[in-house]
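name: query_chain
kind: protein
chains: 1
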Amino acid sequence: MKINTKFLFAAFIILLTGAELQAQYGYGNGYGGGGYGYGYGRQRNAIPQAHSEPKAPEPKTADQIVDDEMPGITEALELNEFEAAVMSSILKKSIQKRIELQILELAPDKMREALEKITEQQTEELKSGLSEEKYEAFVELQKKGLAKAQKEKKKEGKKKKKKKKKPKD
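structure:
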């Protein structure tokens, strides 16, 4: 009997400490990745990794820039399809010229003169292609910015809805 209780006691102690040893050395799904003492901390690869720098975003073309902005401009100025097409073609042409100027990297004075010429041409073409009211609205839109003009238009629309609801009282 004495041997039997000592044996049971020793086996019980070994079983209890076995669980702690297993947790220490990373058997299973612990930190180590399942090796006999291999898995302390972060694993390192013997092959050096090449660091790839993130690619710089490619600059947009004149067509992409205008196509992104035209829906907002059309909505803000309430242009019909013909006026939108005219404005789109004029803006694409002038933005393309501005992009070409940036690529040339001219001296600041020459750059300013060339940009003024492009702006004058754009102004003349827009005046001839759009009605006076639409042109003035476009100039105002350029001064304010597209996002601000759209916010103001939404506010005006809400005010009109409120005015229509009030007479029902």
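note: The longest helix spans residues 2-25.
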